[in-house]
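Input record (Table S2, row 396):
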Amino acid sequence: MWKDRAALALVLAIAFSCLVPLKTRAAEATEVQFRGADSGQRASNAEFLWNLPTWAPRPVVPADNPMSTAKVELGRRLFYDREMSASGMMACATCHEQEKAFTDGKRVPVGISGAPGPRNAMSLTNVAYLPVLTWANPTLTRLELQALRPLFGLHPVEMGMNGREDQIFARLGADPVYRQLFAAAFPKTRGAINLTAIVRALAAFERTLLSFDSPYDRYKYGGDANAISDQAKRGEALFFGERLKCGACHSGVNLTDNLVHVARPRAPAVFHNTGLHNLDGKGAYPSPNHGIREFTKLPADEGRMRTPSLRNIALTAPYMHDGSIATLRDVVRLHYAQQGYAVERGQEPSPLRNRLIGGFEISEPELQDLLAFLDALTDTGFVTSPALSDPYMQVN
Ligand code: HEC
Ligand code: HEC
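Output record (heme C complex):
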């Protein structure tokens, strides 16, 4: 338990500080807790049943946290467990609801202290394929580490469990179901209940949040020419075409240029400024969201965010890192076609915007085509799958 505490302190130091000297400590801490974090990940899990279609790539899994059915089941319970928060009212699933493709439908979420967070809750669709996690943090490379933030984070307070680790361990240890699940998931440590085990189980569950069965998947990869409408096909052509250029960043199997899988385990993270905000004519974004500039301190990195996947995008409103756009129609019409809010106000577009963001004309019928395409990215099986749903709601 002591070791766990020490590691937690280090990990929290990385997670909540942007100070440069901490970068070296970050590397150390990651090593202590998760040896070989980003290496040798291909070996594990040949035997785990991923249930992926043949054309879908296999996710990378850290060598120190191989997948197992028992671990995934434990992770699912923890993910839906409201007692994992100081109020007893907030689970991971409170902000990541399955029916909304694991988002919360709010502009920004409110943590247990009542304070709103700075950014929109992200979809967890195919989160296993991301090189880095959250909107704009180039250093957060592992789901195991990410899980500590909502549980223990102070900026913002989400689940508010900082300083209550012993309470978590005691509660879980007193529950025979959990005791059994920890023992099955972590036989080598004889089911020891500690933070490492908790975040490993959560991450294993998150790696099963796999969505590859939208109508567009069936059309594009499954050989079913009729799986989407002609309207959606016209929208696809617009999306990937020269005028709109959406597909330049929302590319590949997950409709994002951020993609890691077994055949490309070290693909880099990619961040872009889409010109959403331009407060001062120099491209400033409203505080506290300055993109990866918060980490790099480079003015040119102002507003640069990780490209989100557009899978299940019709279910995840409101949109953008700050949740400032209510509908997909407005993402296209107000933001991309016009190049951001400044232009909406009659000012110049951001000088920091990516050169692919150049504005465009789009007619009403074309807009409807594009929206039909975005709708075809919805995987209803994913958002209703019992394997991913709340185990506390199910009659066993
Ligand atoms: C109070 C709401 C809230 C709770 C509770 C919450 N999250 Fe999140 N989650 C968010 C927000 C907001 C973001 C975006 C964070 C950012 O950009 O800093 C996010 C981002 C993520 C991401 C990154 C997704 C991506 O595409 O990079 C993962 C993974 C994640 N959360 C998992 C979890 C897990 C696991 C738990 C429970 C231990 C949890 N979340 C609890 C609101 C929440
Ligand atoms: C230069 C790369 C780039 C191009 C081109 C681009 N996007 Fe994006 N897209 C991003 C990034 C980065 C974000 C997140 C930006 C933010 O929140 O500030 C984003 C966000 C979005 C979102 C909101 C996602 C969410 O989860 O909230 C939608 C929807 C979207 N883009 C659709 C499109 C469409 C449609 C086009 C073409 C008209 C397009 N994008 C062109 C990079 C790009």
